Structures are given as structure tokens and as C-alpha cells.
Amino acid sequence: MDEEFKLIYSYSDGDSNIKSILIENQLLYLYNKYSKENQTLVKLKNNIQEFGRRYIQPLVILKSFKEYLNDSPYESFNQSILSIYNNLIVGVLKNDGFQVGDIKETLDTLLQSLVIPDQIKSVNQQKIFNDEEYHRLMNLSILFRDGVRGLLEILVSVVDSLDSRRMVFINDHLLKIFQVILQYHIPVESEQQISDQIHWSNRDISNCSLKLLDVYQKIQKRQNSAFIYTLLDVYKWKSKELDTYFKSLQSTQDAMWKYDAITIYSFFNFIKFVYISNLTEFIGEFKKMIQIVIANLIDCSQREISHVGIEILDYLITNVPNDHVIRSTFNHYQIYQKLFNSIKIDESDISSQNGISLLFRLLYKLYPLNSNSIIHPGVLVPPITQSNTTNIMDILHQPPTPQSSTDPLVEYQNILQLFIKIINDKSSSVTRKLQFLSESKELFTHMTVYLIQHLSLVLKGLLNLIEHSINDRKLILSSLSSLLVLVNQCNPRISVHSSIILSALIPLYNYYSENTTQFNQYIIEITKSLYQSIQQYNNTILLPSSKPPIDIQQILNQLNTQNSIEILSFINHK
């Protein structure tokens, strides 16, 4: 290799034909010859960089690079040639004849080449309207990505070469550089989402864009000036331009933004790149934009976009520690109601993994309940009978109660109705039912005495699920867990339902051949809790004198099964 590079170094006195004679001929030959092994590749790159450092006319190399970008369609970029230019430019930036101002024009051309072409942007739109064109553009996207990685590596090299004093020369390019990072980084973890939705980037490109961000932030940390220290400072400095950049996502009239996945994921990055410690200040700076965009995304009829909105909201709710900031930000533009509606109609398992949990967490933050202000109900909850209980299937078709900003209980009533609908609807997936059952335990605990107003309905929903899911052990186990919390929370008023609860549970005792102990333990715990509840019920001052006391032993004896006798023995030896 050393002998071969002696001829290469003979071009260091300058040659205006460097592009055709040297780069696309001799250097490309050497690159293809030595790049297959790491050891020789490292030496090759060092030699190319050294050539760039020695070259007497560094502007000729930069001009050659610009010509290559201008003359080559993005789908025909050669990775080897881009790698050669990358190492040449690294050397040029160390060349004694190089002036930082010389890079500005090259940077313009480089950033222009990283602009995502309109036809690549239109992939999602073509997926709906023109399947043949969609597949053609997806294949074109593969070629586009091949070139993007090489271009990003060059951009990283350029920015990395600039110290804090030189950065001022490219301040005009700063927003465009950050737009490149926002566009090409992948903010999601799911490989399925990457392959199906993010057609213009991949993991390698995403990691390269993060290198670009890291390089810039390292330069700023070495800078004495406090002009720009964090990414939030950049956002503030360019707030008007950023508002314009994301303006399409704030539209309530033009629906074309729904096909612009690039800008949608850029907005996700726009939020995730901010230090968590700066999120509260960041929300204050861009509150209206954040509110409108999240509301639009969640409300979108395309489920993939709605899920992105849910992920963004989940990220902010998780990482902003101030509940007041959350309430003042997300209690507007019907964000909660749109999330509620999205979860209500979305049967996919994706929403079960994050959206359902988010819905409940947002409920607690936006509509906190103060149990100290309630007047404890003075009327007994009637037992469940055929004549006094609303049919569960009627609940499945009930619309939610209209939202009331002055009464948070309306939202809890609506979510209880949704809970009952989901767990009893045959069309709902087991995953969704399990997720709602899991969340119901905290919901029951959170509602405290407010839950008593809806006890009969919730209890019937759970017992109905148990009755129709006896062969689904996961559902039964989760239902028993929720039922135990319900019994404990509604003590002592749950007592009037003791007979129907025990009638539903006794057949499950010793029913399952595997993990019988776990099922039986729940049944025993529920029975014990009912026993304690009945004792309080019989002693309460609210008990009307005309009503006889409840006797759990009598209930179990009336069931007259081996299971009821065995459970009764646990109660008697309590």
C-alpha cells in the first residue's frame, strides 16, 4: 500500500481533475482493494486523510465533493466514494491552507443532499392510494438510505473538526443541522415500527445522527460562552423557525400532515432530545405547540400515528415530575378525551401495552379525587338481583357521560363503564382485558368511597367475566385479584352481595389442575374479607332495624358443596 500511495502523493501539488483522475479512479481502486480487512482499512483511511492534509489546494477537493453531490442522483451515491471523500475532508480540515469559511459552501451542498426528496416523503400517501407506486418508492428508499449514511458520516466529521471558536462560522447552518438529526434519528424501539413506518432511516443512520448531536454538545461544553449551552438553548434561539417547521402538524383543517411521517417522528425527537431536567422549562416555552400537536396525533384515525401521539404523551407524563405542570398543559384541547376515545375504539395490542396504562395515569393526574370532601353515602347498596340490575350488555352500548370540567367523578364514571365494556365484550382481546383488569386495582383503590356508587355495576361486570371465562386461567386469576381489591375497598357495603359473590367463587375452588393453591388462596382471601365486612355490616349504625343480620356460615351451608364446607372450615379456624 505504501508504494501505491507514493503515486497518489505526487498529486499533492494540485490538479483540477482530481475527481475523475484520482478519486473515482485510483483511490476508488485502492479502497475496494484494501477495505475488506479492518487492519488494512485503517491504514488506507489514514493515508487518504494524510493526502487531504498535504494537498496544496484544499479547495479543489471541496469543489470536487460538491460536484459529485450535484452530479449524482441520490439513488446512485457510491458508498466507497463517499467514504473516500469523508477521509479526504477530514484531512483537508487539518490542512494549513484551509480556512473555516471555505467549508460553508460545501456544507450548504451537503445539507441540501440530506434533504429527504418529496417522492420519499410521499411513501405513506402512496401506500393508501397507489400500491404499485408504494412498492417502487420503498425500493427507492433503500437506495436513498445507502447514501444517507455516508453523507451523515461526512457531516459528523465536519462538525467534529470545528472547535467552539469556529462554530460561529456555521451558525447559519445550525437549524438545518438539527433538522437533519431530528429527521433521521429513530425515536422508537420496536423493530416492526422501524421496518413498516420509518422507511427513510435505519438503526445505522439513526446512530450516526446521534453522533452528530453528541459531537455538537461536546463542543458546546468546551465553550466558555453561555450563548448556547444545551439543546434547549438552541430551541429557544430558533423557536420561530421551529414553530414554522412543525406548523403542518398544528393544522386542524389540512389533513395532509397525516401522511408526513418524517415530520411526525421529527416532533417526537424534538421532545426526546431535551434533557429530562429541562422538560418543565421546555414545555413552558413550547406549550401551545405541544398541546395542539399531541391532540392532533392522538385524534388521528390512522392507528400508527395515534400510537406515536400516545408514546409522546406517555414520555412527557413519565418524565415531568410536576403534576401542576401536567395539569396545566394537558387539561386542554380535549387531550384526555381524545386519548379516552382512541383507547376505546382501538383493539390492537399496541394500545394495550402503553396507551391503557397512560389513560389511567393521566386520569389520576388531571382529575385528582379528594375523599375528605365527600359526604359518606348513608344508603345501603341493594344486592344484585334480576329486577334491579342494569344488563351488562346495555353498558357495552352506552355512550360516555358528557365531560364536565367541574366534576371529575364524571371521568371516573366513564372509565368504569369502559372497564366493564372491555372485560365483557367478546370482541375485546384477552390482552386488553388483562391490561384493564390490572389497571382496575389501582383505580378501585384510587376512587376510595366514590367506588360504592358504582359497586353493583362493577361487581356484576367482574362476576360476568368470571362466569364466561372459566377456562381462561389468566383471566380468572386477574379477575380474582381485582375482585379482592373491590371487596376490600367497598367494605362493609359489599356485604349485601356476599351470597352472589360466593356462589360464583365456590365452583372455582379446586377447579384447576395446575397452580390450584394460587386460585384457592384468592378465593379464601376474598371469603375472609367478606366475613370481616359482614361483621362490620352487622354492627353498623346504618343497618335498618327491619333487616336481619347477614350470616356467612349460613350462606356457605346453603351452597352445600364440598368446596363450601372446606372454605367454611378456613373461616371457622380464622
Q: What can you see in these coordinates?
A:
- The chain starts with a helix and ends with a helix.
- It has helices at 2-9, 18-34, 38-54, 58-71, 79-92, 103-113, 118-121, 123-129, 131-160, 174-184, 191-197, 203-222, 231-237, 239-245, 261-272, 279-285, 287-299, 303-319, 323-330, 335-345, 349-366, 392-396, 409-424, 430-447, 455-468, 473-489, 498-505, 516-539, 552-559, 562-572.
- α24 (430-447) runs parallel beside α26.
- Helix content is 66%, strand content 0%.
- The chain is elongated and about 110 Å long.
- The chain has 574 residues and is mostly helical.
- Among the domains are: 230-366; 367-572, no CATH class.
The chain-level structural class is mainly alpha
Number of helices: 30
Instruction: Tell me the quaternary state.
Output: single chain
Regions with little confidence, pLDDT below 50 for 5+ residues: 373-382, 385-390
Helix content: 55-70%
Shape: elongated
| Strand residue content | under 5%
User: Alpha-carbon distance between the termini?
Assistant: 87 Å
What is the residue-averaged pLDDT?
A: 83
The main sheet comes to: none
Secondary-structure element order, as H and E?
A: HHHHHHHHHHHHHHHHHHHHHHHHHHHHHH
Radius of gyration: 33 Å
